[in-house]
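Batch manifest, entry 17 of 40.
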Amino acid sequence: MFGIHVRPSWWLPERAATEEKIHLDRRRLLRSFGIGAGLLLGRNAASLAPLLPGEGERRTGIPRRKNPDYRAVGRPLTPERLAATYNNFYEFTTDKRQVHMLAGDFRVEPWEVEFAGLFEHEGRYSVRDLEALVPPEERVYRFRCVEAWSMVVPWTGLPLGDLLRRLGLRREARFLRFVTVSRPEAMPGMKALPSYPWPYFEALRIDEALHPLTLLATGIYGKALPPQNGAPVRLVVPWKYGLKNIKSIVRIEATRKRPPTLWNRLQPAEYSWLSNVEPWKPHPRWSQATERRLDTGERIPTLPYNGYAAEVGSLYRD
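Output type: structure tokens
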């Protein structure tokens, strides 16, 4: 139609710009840690092309060390193609096999994560900023969906507890609230499910967030996260069901009061606030005692806390 001004894809409204004070405070913080300004430029957008069947390789060799303490889980890695083409991401679609196609053009640059609430160093940080504060490392973890399927994945990420300490998490903080990006124009599932309280939100207790197993992931299979896996930054808590592992995070808030979580708010009889992998607690519509391996289709017993009971069982003695 005549008279309609079509803005280019890179256009952002003025209100979306980072406030100058926040921008300067973030740079001062990073300089205080001895991090050069050159690291603040962010990733090359071309390196973040989505991982789709038949397409070229994504950026390999993202800076990381393979942590030997998190390599053996008693099962082989799930093939990368399966992990890239079988995804829950309702913001795009409820069809797991279609997510990677609908998310293929999702823009993940520029991107910032806002840290708010009970932090000494509140502000917005790019993914490159965060990786400069805490060096990424690769860890192999089990992954268990509440729908009773599972895989084994090599994540690259930042130990979340280390990052929270660098950002000055205050002692009175008791919980972390996480929020996913909201882009209805690029995420068709949001419009298809208007009754959902978008954007997606999740939460952890502070002791869970500080646990050494908890990661803020930026990569998978040695490459940057593709959109369907939660690019460019997501939560990975391996002893909890996948619904707790919130994707495409734009805000992390430290609070005193326990925040709500999306699935617990929608269906509290089916999804607990904690959502730990506890095979002795059946879902109202199916058993959680076994799981289906995504790579072989085999049904196997589900381990308490997804195999991490020795590390995290003490968190839930009550």
